[in-house]
Amino acid sequence: MSKCLKIVCCYFGPRRGIFNTPENMVDFIKEMMENEINMENGVHTDVVFVNNDIGDVAKNEFLNSFNNTPTKNGKIIIETRANKDGSFGAYYDMAFKYLSDYDYFFFCEDDVLIFRDYYIKEFIEHIDSDNNLGFVCLAPISILRGILPIHSGGGCGLTSKEKFLRINSIESVGNMLSSKSSGFIPNDYTYLQTLEIEFTNSFIRGGMSIENHPKFSPLCTNYSIHYGQRNYASIILSQGEKEYIYKVGF
Known about the structure:
By secondary structure, the protein is of the alpha/beta class.
């Protein structure tokens, strides 16, 4: 029986946007936890919330209180790591840590709430339908060709263990993180953008494709308040109506 690990990176420090502050992130994660506990994923799915630790004892205790909470299809797991390399450091760390335990990995940021039942099952079915499909993206795919390499926003989406390993090893990821960090402050957004691009563009460089699920809109329900998504809205909406399955922030 297939098993999926959903990896959610949590960060309680300052953010560049105005929609999720360190204060309201606690309330948003409460909403996410309730959603994950009651979600029907269609396959065995554990959800690991990875705390990029900033040393806030109260918020750490709040997050740790959910450890081993049962869900419909598995359980909640809480992990804590050093606050470095943003969401993508957490994604890589958890994928390698749990590599032998799961067949699929779904990567997600802590201000992204996916509310549709069975979406994990549908993402798995789609990636398994094409051997050359490396990553099923949740958010819009960058189409600013010539400006930035093609990649998926936030690195949110699903891949299989086998396809993840086609392009990643502990050594290659370690070398990549080391080279990308040269000259950058480890958590500044210029550096983090390079990791965001690398995370899904690496599938393309490895000879595979990345794409959105054909049934679901890559836009969040509240895309109009998010600058990054507004840039793509007219193009995506012109391609026809699709089902909205997630929101970003309150």
